[in-house]
Amino acid sequence: MAKVNIEKKILTKNEMKAAEVRERLKDVAVLNFVSSPGSGKTTLLENVLAQLKEKYKIAVVEGDQQTTHDADRIKAAGVEAFQVNTGNACHLEAVDVERALGTLGYDLDLLVIENVGNLVCPAEYDLGEDAKVMLISVTEGDDKPIKYPVMTRACEAMIVNKTDLLPYVDFDVEGCIKYARGINPDLEIMTVSCRAKEGLESVTAYIEKKILEKKGK
Ligand code: MG
Ligand code: ZN
User: Fold this and answer.
1) What is the pLDDT of residues 149-164, one digit of tens each?
2) How far apart are CA 179 and CA 171, in angstroms?
3) How far apart are CA 160 and CA 152, in angstroms?
4) If 104 and its partner were Cys, which of 55, 59, 183, 203 is the partner (CB 3.0–4.6 Å)?
5) pLDDT over 90 (residue 131)
6) Based on the number of CB atoms within 10 Å of its own CB, is 189 exposed (0-12), middle (13-18) or buried (19 or more)?
7) Ligand 1 center to residue 114 CA distance, Å?
8) Alpha-helical regions (H) of the chain
């Protein structure tokens, strides 16, 4: 008797919600920024979105367990933001993004999601994004990309931040990039210093490319 393997792809509740979000944002570039706590996601967004906000309709979903500090900072930089407090949870889910969009609206060119600082489970949660972008600061270990390979593989781009501190730390940028490319050869890699305002144009250009791709230009 022939053996038949029936493999049924069962979508989780989050995957179904993420598909709905993706469908409603089909003309909008959606980027999911992930990192360890303190890598400088919010500071990077303040700097980069300030360059893009006159040209594009942008909103940010901020994920933190508690406080509205990051959403307050983004709003102070002149960009719409919605804070999601996850309480005990260590990641955002697609339902959080949907809830935020209920306030932010869908009439956007770019939606940026700043995930909860955590390189583990955010890798497993689709939020309806086009791409995940990972930040690593030079005050962390340069082996982060191989310590968290699931996330490294899930990301389209990696940004090495706080390069102004390189003279004071033992972070090997080339080594970090080598580790990262070993896991994900296609990874787009940028190095920046928000404090010294260096390399920011590469991130701005990457985001703008994502916006234009989504608009079909
Ligand atoms: Mg933050
Ligand atoms: Zn989690």
Assistant:
1) 999 999 999 999 999 9
2) 13
3) 13
4) 59
5) yes
6) middle
7) 7
8) 13-24, 41-52, 69-76, 94-104, 144-147, 149-154, 173-183, 200-215
Q: What is the pLDDT of residue 5?
A: 66
Query: Taking a C-beta distance cutoff of 8 angstroms, is the pair 183, 145 a contact?
Result: yes
The string of pLDDT tens digits covering residues 21-38 is: 999 999 999 999 999 999
Average pLDDT, integer, range 108-128: 97
| pTM as predicted | 0.94
Helices 200-215 and 41-52, packing angle to 10 deg: 60
Cα-to-centroid distance, 30 and ligand 2 (Å): 20
Neighbours of ion ligand 2 (CB under 5 A): 90-91, 121
Non-local CB neighbours of 76 within 8 Å, separated by 6+ positions = none
Beta bridge partners of 158: 134, 189
Please list all protein residues whose beta carbon sits less than 5 angstroms from ligand 1, which is an ion.
41-42, 70
pLDDT at 66 over 80: yes
